[in-house]
């Protein structure tokens, strides 16, 4: 007679499933801690959260990126990282459950996620070497082994569930404690790697400019509460980029390479080489193409650096108008971001800079230390490469830079825009004289006139602050006799070419928003 089939195993109890979920989370936490420790030794950017997050940014459709910037502002990267951690926590719970149902399956799933992280790290544009895959692989291997071991504490003695739970809780607690220590060690090592860069920035002494900024006319800063200051403090200057980990580069090790089409003399410059060149200082307004009408992604600062056009001429570069074969300058940052800029715009006489100073101090790390590029009159995505380390001369036909590949226009001159800073939208005001004020900008053209409309009434001409030149924004104000009720205020600017800001409202893609800033207030 044949033996009867084996009885099916008893299904896991709710308590066992709960503890298996805990095992998954603890093993996942340990995997991340080990991965970040290895990344501290390899490269901070090779950590799995950073690598997967960077790949997510690259693969995200441009409209969704714009939504994230509008919704979360400069916290968009933090939100992305938190989102990745939440997803990983949910996956860890499921892997713990899977491991309980079928021994080895959850551990294999964790290893698979490690492979995904390794591929993301190794195939990123900024991948340093094949070693970038190690953090994810080593972390996943550690996590898989711990998951198998922890769930084993639950099923080792099915006849003694209480004892199994005690053994499991002790093992899980010890694992979590050890993982916390590993994470702390990784952070400590990462901090040590940053110390050289921080020390090099602290040691920088900006040279006295050979061409100081021209004396600023009296009256560029209006004495109006709530208006944006003419010079934006560094701590308040907007930041929009794709770097999940802000690069920290030792200025002593930094190099800039200039090469490519039409370059007759390749250059490799050190930071000290730049400091030793003729230094200029300029007040320039910089704004992001993601800035919606009335948005915050714009600032005006005093930049210190060297003329980019002089450096290009030294390398033998000629603009297309003078027979040069290259019409695009591709700037690459240390994280392999590529910014494409028209060569003609860099060499047409405007103060395009390789900047190393911002408002009298070395560039902050978040704004590109040791060196960044700035080209007045162009949106930042086609002109303002941070952490720059390479300049390649090429053509727009031959190469699409990062944002062009993502659907943005290859050439993007700044549009004429204006903004109401005070009063704020939805403000409650008292009847009487109210000062309406803000800023307007049209880099390379300057601002000639600003007008304000109340409800559907006539356009009233605002008073302008003194102009500091066409490459900076300009403050304005209007004294409005406010009457009780709900009111709509709209502003428009006219630039130095005579063109008035259009009323046609468009989004930021593909080359910057258009429309007029409007607010609504209640007067009582």
Q: Return the average pLDDT rounded to an integer.
A: 89
Beta-strand content: 15-25%
CA distance, first residue to last residue = 97 Å
Helix content: 25-40%
Mind telling me the C-alpha Rg? 29 Å
- How are strands sequenced across the largest beta sheet? 2-1-10-5-6
Number of strands: 19
What's the helix-strand series? HHHHHHHEEHEEHEEHEEEEHEEEEEEEEE
The coarse overall form would be globular
The quaternary organization reads as: single chain
SS field, number of helical segments? 11
Low-confidence stretches: 4-9, 158-162
Biggest beta sheet attributes: 5 strands, mixed
Q: Which class of secondary structure composition applies to the elements?
A: alpha+beta
Please provide a written account of the structure.
It is built from eleven helices and 19 strands. The chain has 524 residues and is of the alpha+beta class. The strands form four sheets. A five-stranded mixed beta sheet has the order 2-1-10-5-6. The chain is globular, with a radius of gyration of 29 Å. It starts with 13 loop residues before the first helix and ends with a strand.
């Amino acid at each position: 007679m044949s033996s009867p089939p084996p009885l099916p195993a008893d299904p896991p109890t709710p308590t066992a499933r709960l503890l298996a979920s805990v095992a998954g989370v603890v093993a996942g936490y340990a995997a991340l801690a080990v991965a970040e420790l290895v990344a501290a030794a390899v490269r901070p950017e090779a950590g799995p959260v950073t690598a997967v997050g960077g790949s997510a940014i690259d693969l995200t459709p441009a409209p969704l990126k714009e939504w994230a910037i509008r919704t979360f502002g400069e916290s968009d990267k933090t939100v992305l990282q938190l989102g990745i951690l939440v997803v990983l926590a949910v996956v860890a719970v499921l892997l713990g459950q899977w491991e309980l149902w079928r021994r080895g399956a959850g551990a294999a799933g964790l290893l698979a996620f490690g492979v995904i992280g390794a591929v993301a790290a190794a195939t990123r544009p900024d991948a340093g070497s094949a070693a970038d895959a190690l953090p994810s692989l080593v972390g996943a291997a550690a996590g898989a082994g711990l998951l198998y071991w922890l769930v084993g504490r639950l099923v080792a003695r099915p006849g003694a569930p209480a004892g199994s739970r005690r053994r499991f809780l002790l093992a899980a607690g010890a694992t979590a404690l050890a993982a916390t220590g590993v994470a702390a060690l990784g952070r400590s090592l990462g901090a040590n790697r940053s110390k050289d860069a921080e020390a090099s920035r602290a040691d920088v002494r900006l040279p006295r400019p050979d061409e100081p900024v021209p004396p600023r006319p009296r009256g560029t800063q209006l004495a109006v509460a709530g208006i944006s200051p003419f010079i934006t403090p560094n701590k308040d200057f907007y930041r929009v980029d794709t770097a999940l980990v802000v690069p920290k580069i030792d200025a002593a090790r930094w190099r800039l390479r200039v090469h490519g089409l039409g370059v007759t003399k390749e250059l490799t410059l050190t930071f000290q080489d730049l400091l030793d060149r003729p230094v200029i200082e300029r007040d320039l307004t910089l704004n992001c193409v993601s800035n919606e009408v009335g948005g915050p992604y714009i600032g005006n600062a005093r930049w210190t650096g060297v003329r980019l056009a002089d450096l290009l001429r030294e390398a033998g570069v000629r603009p297309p108008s003078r027979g040069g074969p290259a019409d695009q300058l591709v700037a690459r940052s240390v994280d392999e971001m590529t910014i494409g800029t028209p060569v003609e715009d860099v060499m047409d006489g405007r103060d395009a800079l390789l900047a190393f100073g911002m408002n009298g101090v070395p560039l902050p790390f978040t704004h590109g230390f040791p060196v960044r590029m700035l080209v007045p009159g162009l949106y930042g995505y086609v002109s303002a490469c941070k952490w720059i380390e390479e300049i390649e001369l090429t053509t727009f036909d031959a190469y699409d830079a990062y944002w062009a590949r993502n659907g943005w226009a290859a050439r993007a001159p700044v549009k004429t825009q204006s903004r109401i800073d005070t009063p704020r939208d939805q403000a409650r005001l008292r009847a009487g004289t109210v000062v309406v004020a803000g800023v307007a900008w049209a880099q390379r053209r300057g601002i000639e006139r600003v007008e304000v409309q109340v409800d559907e009434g006539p356009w009233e001409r605002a008073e302008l602050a003194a102009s500091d030149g066409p490459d900076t924004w300009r403050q304005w104000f209007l004294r409005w006799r406010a009457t009780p009720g709900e009111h709509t205020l709209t502003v428009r600017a006219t630039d130095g070419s005579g063109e008035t800001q259009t009323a046609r409202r468009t989004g930021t893609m593909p080359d910057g928003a258009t429309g007029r800033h409007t607010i609504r207030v209640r007067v009582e």
